[in-house]
Design a protein that fits this description.
Helices cover about 40% and strands about 20% of the residues. The chain has 13 helices and twelve strands.
């Protein structure tokens, strides 16, 4: 990565000097965005700061417990804060309805673990070697000398667990486990996280997953698999788009699959794609070519076209990536 990171000490200095602080996770929050934002908010409140998490959409039902009591809708924010911190996103397009609020703050900070060529804030700490943004929030709160309590620890742990697939993915490091262990030593109940996030699913979500898996298509001799969520699927199952969480991971878990793709049809000609690789493929490269990004093994992009055209585009790109591997091995 070419950009220079600001230190946690420099970022902590800006936080200590700030009055009102708004925390901005990306839209369509996942567990890391929700957990990181909530843990940071709780930590800043322990320092006596006026801190809130600002949202532009509703949290997924299974993650709402992480941000409960900490959030305010962007429509209710009437003036720019002295400090705005975006968490788990280093792209202004990831929070479009809050971009003006963020950029209008007295000072801005970005904390993220996704690859970025340049920062979007006055101070940036972007580390794509971190397993989750929760790791960065942990180190920042330590720099601020905030004592971790069970509530904060539970949210840091949730961020780590969800972005590492419960510590199964290749982004899991010794540091990830060390932070998780430190959080568990506060007395937090890791089983509560697992039950709330993974064992509190709606029947509509289960029906949607079943429908997508039933229609999934294999390609490249079984090394690739693609699932599609259409607006018709949502209507027939009674599910919401946020209920697609976990489908692409399930597709990747199939024996022999290296690249899993999930296409999600939004309203109009907008297709959101999630790509995951298991061991060797570079899906970040595929998504970057389509104005997206993320990590080598987990990335996403948005394609402004019809569902059939998006399918053909990504199918060809994934087959090319897998053919390249077959030629070299």
């Amino acid at each position: 990565m070419n950009m220079k990171n600001d230190t946690f000490g420099e970022i902590a200095g800006e936080i200590r000097a700030a009055g009102s602080i708004l925390i901005i996770p990306h839209e369509h929050m996942d567990g890391d965005a929700a957990g990181s934002a909530a843990a940071l908010c709780l930590g800043l409140r322990k320092l006596g700061k006026q801190a809130q998490v600002v949202l532009e959409d509703r949290p997924p039902e299974n993650l709402a417990f992480l941000t409960k009591g900490l959030c305010v809708p962007v429509s209710k924010v009437k003036e720019a804060p002295s400090l705005a911190i975006c968490v788990d996103c280093s792209d202004l397009h990831r929070f479009p309805k809050r971009e003006k609020l963020f950029c209008g703050a007295g000072k801005t900070i970005c904390l993220d673990h996704h690859k970025a060529e340049q920062g979007i804030a006055d101070l940036n700490h972007i580390d794509d070697t971190a397993a989750a943004s929760a790791e960065l929030v942990y180190f920042l709160l330590r720099e601020l000398d905030v004592a971790f309590d069970e509530a904060m620890a539970l949210r840091i742990y949730a961020g780590l667990a969800t972005d590492t697939g419960n510590f199964l993915y290749s982004n899991t490091t010794a540091q990830t486990h060390e932070i998780a262990a430190a959080m568990m030593r506060t007395g937090m109940d890791s089983n509560e996280v697992n039950v709330m996030i993974y064992e509190s699913e709606s029947f509509a979500k289960m029906r949607l997953h079943a429908a997508v898996l039933a229609k999934a298509e294999c390609f490249a001799g079984g090394m690739g698999i693609m699932g599609i969520v259409s607006q018709e699927d949502l209507a027939s199952t009674g599910a919401r788009m946020e209920d697609t969480e976990g489908i692409v991971a399930a597709l990747r878990s199939i024996r022999g699959v290296e690249i899993a793709v999930l296409l999600k049809e939004q309203q109009g000609k907008v297709i959101k794609a999630s790509l995951r690789a298991k061991t060797f493929a570079d899906v970040q490269k595929i998504c970057a070519a389509n104005h997206g990004g993320g990590h080598v093994r987990a990335s996403g992009c948005t394609i402004y076209d019809t569902l059939p055209n998006a399918r053909r585009l990504l199918l060809a790109a994934c087959e090319k990536e897998l053919q390249g591997y077959e030629r070299n091995h």
